[in-house]
Amino acid sequence: MEQKPKYKEEQESRYTARTVAILAELPEFCTTFYDKNQTTFLPKTQYDYMRTMRTFLTYLQQTHPYFNDCELTLSAKKKRFNDQYGLRDEIIYQILKETEIRLSELAELNIRDFDLKNHRFYVYRTKQRSTWISMSDELTDLIEKYLEERSAYAFEKDAEAVFLVTIGRYKGARLGVRSIERIVITIRKRQL
């Protein structure tokens, strides 16, 4: 006989679903905040924080001239910083979907590893074995656009790395395996 879920579990599930729905409307930095605090706060608290963020960002957009022409939601996809950040994440996810590359190999990719004319990139598997991996036309176009946008930023730490941290204390550093894993988890959650 199947047991009914407990009231508390039902409520937590509802709050989680509501939180994910709000996150779909908010800029990427809100998702980063949510991911960072997901394990330490209860679902009701997470929902309250995301709702408060949405309210605050809406207030800023409606009352402060600096934010008038900024789109603060992901659905609009026009805010300059979030476009670049979102494109990077989309490419990471697309590469993982199209190929059998490991996260550690993805994190080690450099700009010179891409051959966009031939729709492929080079992966260093081991010192003894490396290989070219083919890309779809769509992925090639996304990477070309991303590299063009990325060239506008002056990153000094890991200038050759393809995927870089774009905010915070580690801005300009190569994106690590754990960060790539978080990006993939976030995208998967949004698709649910």
Q: How would you describe this protein?
A:
With about 190 residues, the protein is mainly α. It has 7 helices and 3 strands; from the N terminus they run H-H-H-H-H-E-E-E-H-H. The chain has helices at about 5-25, 30-35, 45-65, 80-100, 105, 135-150, 175-190; strands spanning about 115, 120-125, 130-135. A 3-stranded antiparallel beta sheet has the order 1-2-3, with no helix packed on it. The radius of gyration is 19 Å and the shape is globular. The chain starts with 6 loop residues before the first helix and ends with a helix. Residues about 75-85 have low confidence and may be disordered.
Multimeric organization = single chain
Helix content: 40-55%
Q: Kindly report the average pLDDT value.
A: 78
The rough form would be described as globular
Query: Percent of residues in beta strands?
Result: 5-15%
- Strand elements, count: 3
Order of helices and strands: HHHHHEEEHH
What is the rounded Rg? 19 Å
The main pleated sheet reads as:
3 strands, antiparallel
Low-confidence stretches: 74-85
Structural class: mainly alpha
Q: How many distinct helices?
A: 7
Strand order of the largest sheet: 1-2-3
The span between the termini is 28 Å
